[in-house]
Amino acid sequence: MAARRRKRAAEGPSEINAKIKRNKTTNAVTNNKKARVTVENEKDNETSDHCNIISVPKPVSAGKWKNKERVLVFSSRGINFRTRHLMQDLKTMMPHSKADTKMDRKDKLFVVNEVCEIKNCNKCIFFEAKKKQDLYMWISNVPHGPSAKFLVQNVHTLAELKMTGNCLKGSRPLLSFDPKFDKDPHYALLKELFTQTFSTPQYHPKSQPFVDHVFTFTIADNRIWFRNYQIIEEDAALVEIGPRFVLNPIKIFQGSFGGPTLYENPHFQSPNMHRRILRLAFAAKQKERQMVKEIRKEKRKEGQEVLTQDVTDDVFVTPAEQKTVHVEWEAPEPQTTKKKLKLTELKKRTLMKRKGLR
């Protein structure tokens, strides 16, 4: 070790740098040779039948955020707790969403376009509450349209369902649509609106580079059923996460929150009309019950015979047998009963025993 140190001290710094450069060049040459060998081996493997090709994806940071879709999710005043939780669930599932304060009921829906412009959003999901029991959802492409209005039914939130599925927050979802969306033109328009609203843009700053859940839109009973499933990596099975809700389409407008109607659902029945039909059906049942009671009373009256004379009236009219009257002029003698005699005899005997006479 001492001899090596003496040699290094004897050598100048220029000679040491030259040695380092030689080592680097030799390492580069050996690496190039190894690389050539691997390339040749890969070519040989490609020609063979059993070749294993491994493709390494590009880094995520290399991409640029080009599709700058921003969705504004907010509601009007008067919503209940379930709607508020549903809004929060949608915000957590959509990293490209933004929130805003609740809008007053007196304001018209055209004001939403201005709010979206202030928030720099080009899509909007607006929840409108009426009578504190009916919930409507607006999905609009701001500011030129189109926009669609839905009645939201059967709402179940994430905290309410307690499903076993789970996914990474901010991950990008897959969108799965029913084949019926491609048959009718109004469903095709809704499909495009859903894809632009619910799909997370690629390379979004708040999103994660993973795809681990699916948004499904199915059509059944003239309604759109929304479900959220987790993709399990092991066997590609689906486990439901939540939330879940049903959208009953009402109208599709050409503009944003208004304009000429492109489609109107003929099967839609308003909640007010539905409640009115239920009330009328209940009232009809009550009238029917009252009519049945009256008919029974009339039948009872018809079945009974009205008697002009009562048969039991002559029961006490029949003459009784006359008895001879016997009058006693003297008072009857007092009759001593056997019990009293026996009692007096017992008293005498007891007195005699006490006195010792007997």
Q: Residue-averaged pLDDT, rounded?
A: 83
Q: Which structural category fits the helices and strands?
A: alpha+beta
- What form results from the Cα inertia axes? elongated
The number of helical runs is: 8
Number of strands: 11
- Radius of gyration, in Å, reads 50 Å
Outline the biggest β-sheet. 11 strands, mixed
How far is it from the N-terminal to the C-terminal residue, by CA?
Answer: 154 Å
Beta fraction: 15-25%
Low-confidence stretches: 28-49
Main features:
alpha+beta, 37% helix, 358 residues, 8 helices
What's the SSE blueprint?
Elements lengths: L1 H9 L2 H35 L23 E5 L5 H13 L3 E3 L11 H8 L4 E8 L3 E8 L5 E10 L1 H4 L9 E7 L7 H14 L9 E13 L2 E9 L6 E3 L3 E12 L2 E7 L6 H33 L34 H18 L3
Parallel strand pairs: 1-2, 1-3, 6-7
Antiparallel strand pairs: 3-4, 4-5, 5-10, 7-8, 8-9, 8-10, 10-11
